[in-house]
């Protein structure tokens, strides 16, 4: 039995698999702000789904910046009580199994590259726009090498505040995330009708961030996920593509943009991570900067 989890800023999702080929029932709960409560809730759901069977290994993602050893959360504005806590070791002790931890957006990218909208492409750029903004690059079916982590939501797109002077910072996340929209307009995004010009304005601002992804990551495809892209109302994908073509001009061709296909991309990414690590264990190999034990 294998377990997978996805700890987001709003919801936590848990699933199990017996064969590392498919995912069964998914358990969803609100993400507790308290660390101990959050770990207990996650472990309880794993045990319930496992039905008393022993869990051989677990993998999952959490929002925010991970520590360099990818065993704990180093920094996150939403899950501040989870910072600098031994998350992977606490989960491993509670479950009696090795636990691998990754950034949630990186695992969603991996899931989409193997099972979703990025399947069949060699270089996949993934961005999620929801409570925050995250993303990652997948190359040849693996999360690309990085020293710290991928944080496309914290790229500066408006240094002199001409695009949106009311934003909290120059960061993309402070322009287009669900939390930023609520701060700036006093409404949750779902309360703003699709007919409101705001949604096209968010598409324009997102296009500036995606231009940077194109020139830095040179992707074959860009996959966009998260509630601000997949929800109702949403940032219109066709308008994002039109604006991206405008800001790229004739300099570089615009790669295809696709909406994420997996509602639980992070769980599928965790499944793929465990498959890779299972193979690495058999070979006594090393995964990235982390030795597989």
Provide a short characterization of the protein structure.
The chain has a five-stranded mixed sheet with strand order 3-2-1-4-7, sandwiched between helices. It has a five-stranded mixed sheet with strand order 10-9-8-11-12, sandwiched between helices. The chain has 293 residues and is of the alpha/beta class. The two termini are 18 Å apart.
Reconstruct the topology from this structure:
Elements: E1 2-7, E2 11-17, E3 26-30, H1 35-50, E4 57-62, E5 65-66, E6 73-75, H2 87-95, E7 99-103, H3 104-115, E8 123-129, E9 133-139, E10 142-143, H4 173-176, H5 178-185, H6 198-217, E11 221-225, H7 227-230, H8 237-248, E12 257-259, H9 265-283, E13 286-287, E14 290-291
Helix pairs in contact: 1-2, 3-9, 6-8
Can you tell me the CATH architecture of the largest domain? Answer: 2-Layer Sandwich
Sheet with the most strands? 5 strands, mixed
What's the mean pLDDT score? 91
Rough outline: globular
Our Rg estimate from Cα atoms comes to 19 Å
Order of strands, widest sheet? 3-2-1-4-7
Which residues form runs of ≥5 with pLDDT under 50?
286-293
CATH topology of the largest domain: Nucleotidyltransferase, domain 5
| H/E element sequence | EEEHEEEHEHEEEHHHEHHEHEE
The CATH superfamily of the largest domain bears the name ATPase, nucleotide binding domain
Number of domains: 2
Number of distinct beta strands: 14
Q: Helix/strand/pairing class, anyone?
A: alpha/beta
User: How helix-rich are the residues, as a percent range?
Assistant: 25-40%
Number of distinct helices: 9
Strand content: 15-25%
The CATH class designation of the largest domain is Alpha Beta
Please give the alpha-carbon distance between the first and last residues: 18 Å
